Amino acid sequence: MSEIVTKTVICPKCRQQTNTDIRISANTREEPNIRKMIMDETIFRWKCPKCGFSTRFQHPFLYNDIENKFMVYYIPQVERQKVVDIKLEEQFSELKDIKKRIVPDINTLKEKIVIFEQGLDDMALELTKLAVSEIVSKDTGHNVYSGYFTEIDEEKNTVSFQFFVGGDKRSYIQSTRLDIYRRSMGIVKKHFPKVDQQLGFLNIGRQWAKESLDNYKKSRK
Ligand SMILES: [Zn+2]
Q1: Rounded Cα gap, residues 102 and 201, in angstroms
Q2: Alpha-carbon span 200 to 84, nearest angstrom
Q3: What mean pLDDT, rounded, does the chain reach?
Q4: Among the four 20, 73, 174, 218, which has the fewest Cβ within 10 Å?
Q5: How far apart are CA 195 and CA 202, in angstroms?
Q6: What integer pLDDT is reported at residue 185 of this predicted model?
Q7: Taking Cα atoms as reference points, which of 187, 168, 184 lies closest to residue 176?
């Protein structure tokens, strides 16, 4: 179920108008190499057929991994916390317990793929990431611009994130004990148990983590 639409694109360099095929959805079963095309971002490259100018071309894309039961819908700069697409969900109505996410950027699209392929819980990871990012902010004296899950090391008992810090977005790797992730899992299981049976694609990022943690703290008072 790979979907392609044709759009008119004007080359930013030579101003030539061309019709370009844009792939707006794909599943990993029919197109196993789609994952690689996301990870190296070739799916978001556009090349002018006239002058050869090449640039990043950001367009919506729905990534569907049937084996690992998740869908990630990349909508550039999306700010909404939830997107319900009835037509789309009717196509998958026979499938239960699918994790559905919307993401605002390509790095988060990649991050969600890595998380769900490993069977990890992105909500618990976001809560953990928020806690770790506050430590990074304190340690460096700079704001954390963004952060992404990198790995879990069972032997070392750690979970690691890569943060981009300060105005120059310097890369900063920070690990924490795996217990923090496990504790976050406990919070998620207790307070957000049925999230993935809802209709709609959810934006599970920093804003979600902040709001959820606030609600959780209030509920304990
Ligand atoms: Zn051109």
Answers
A1: 6
A2: 4
A3: 92
A4: 218
A5: 9
A6: 94
A7: 184
What is the 47 CA–ligand 1 centroid distance (Å)?
8
Distance CA 92, CA 81 (A): 21
Ligand 1: centre distance to CA 54 (Å): 8
User: From ligand 1's centre to the CA of 124, what distance in Å?
Assistant: 45
- Contacts within 8 Å (CB) and 24+ apart, 192-197: 192/123, 195/123, 196/97, 196/98, 196/99, 196/100, 197/96, 197/97
CA distance 20 to 1: 19
- Angle, alpha carbons 78-80-81 (nearest 5°): 120
Q: How far is the CA of 21 from the centre of ligand 1 (A)?
A: 16
Mean pLDDT of 154-160: 96
Cα of 17 vs centre of ligand 1, distance in Å, is 8
Percent of the chain with pLDDT over 70: 98
